[in-house]
Structures are given as structure tokens and as C-alpha cells.
Amino acid sequence: MESEPRWPALVALFAVAGLRFTLPAWMSVGPDWAFTLVLILVMIPVVVFHRTGRHSENQIAGHLATGIVTADMVVSLVLLIARLPAHKESPQQLLLAAGGLWISNVLVFASWYWRLDGGGPNARDRREHHETGAFLFPQMTLKKPEQHGWTPGFVDYLFLAFNTSTAFSPTDVPVLSRWAKLMMMVQSAIALATIVLLAARAVNVL
User: Fold this and answer.
1) For residue 53, what are the β-bridge partners?
2) Predicted TM-score of the model (pTM)
3) What is the pLDDT of residues 153-169, one digit of tens each?
């Protein structure tokens, strides 16, 4: 079976790093360029391990890179919420911060779903088609011949993460495993805090 492309996941993580440059300086720990450099240094072995077929090391390095981006996003959210009572930020700053965090939330959790579902992309590559996993995609319920060999890609998990942050719940993809349900709860909670607590407050004081 043809290997699943990895570049969309790489683009997603670097997009999160790029969004960091649009946030106010007080929402980040350390300079933006240093965080981007750290992410590049971590992603190099991810690519090398994949190219050389060292799947276990590739999986560990991939989880490390995603974990670093996740921790940085959570820190930014905590710093923003902690600063709200001071009323020092303009509505425009709050809206910009809320938008950046919301997009980062979607990209980060899409990366996690992609890396964990069905054992991750390396495990999915070894199967002829995707029959079991943490999520029940509509294609998995179809018995048509053209669906044989279907496996989810990063865009499928991005769509799932987008719906979770927009509707605060799964839409067309039921969730089957407990770890996925817990992760979706966390993602929805972050999206709710970002949109309701931050964006709504900013709009009210415009």
C-alpha cells in the first residue's frame, strides 16, 4: 500500500509556530524565533527516521514535536486568561489572540488525532485499508468496492478537529475510544474558553 503523505502534518505544526508570531509578546514564553528553531531541530529527526524506515523512533520524535507545540499553546492560553482581569489589552488584541489560539487548537489536535488513531500513520501504512480505530469515518461503513484500500489522511483528521472546535462535539465521525473522547473534551474546552470567554468579551467592549 502507498505510504500516507507526511507533509500536511509537518505544515500544520509549522503553521502553529508561525501563528505564534502574530500573538502579543506577553502570551509567549521565550522569543518566537527560538521556539521555531527548537521545532525545526525536533522535526529533523522525525523526517530522517521516516525516510530510513525507523518507525519506532519516528513515532517517538513525532509525539515529542507535537507535545512541544501543545504545551506552548496551553501556556499561551493560560497567560491570556490570567491577564484578562487587568483589562490592559485592547479589543483588537483580544480578538487577534483568540483567533490565533483557536486556529492553533484545531491544528494541534488534528495532529494528535492523526498521530494516534489506529496506531499512527506508520501502522496504518502497513494495513490494506482502515477498518478499526478511535474514529468511525463514514468510508469505514461503506461496503462498495471503491472503498477498499481507503485510509484516513491528515485532512480527514483536520476536518474532525475543525468540527470539534466549531460545534464543540463530533459531527459525521463518531468517537469510539476513551482516549479520543477525552482528547475531544479537552479540545472543546479550549475552544470554548477561547471563543466564549475571550472573543465574546472583546466584542462586548468594542
Assistant:
1) none
2) 0.89
3) 999 999 999 998 887 66
Q: Which of 154, 160, 183, 166 lies closest to 102, judged by CA?
A: 166
* CB-CB neighbours of 134 under 10 Å: 18
Contacts of 176 by beta carbon, 8 Å cutoff, 6+ apart? 133, 134, 135, 136
Which position has the grid cell 480505530?
Answer: 133
Burial class (CB in 10 A: 0-12, 13-18, 19+), 31: exposed
Euclidean distance between CA atoms 176 and 180, whole angstroms:
7
Q: Residue 137: exposed, middle, or buried by beta-carbon count in 10 A (0-12, 13-18, 19+)?
A: buried
Please tell me the number of Cα atoms within 13 Å of 174 on its side-chain side: 7
Other CB atoms closer than 10 Å to residue 148's CB: what's the count?
Answer: 10
Sequence-ordered strand ranges (E) for 59-129: none
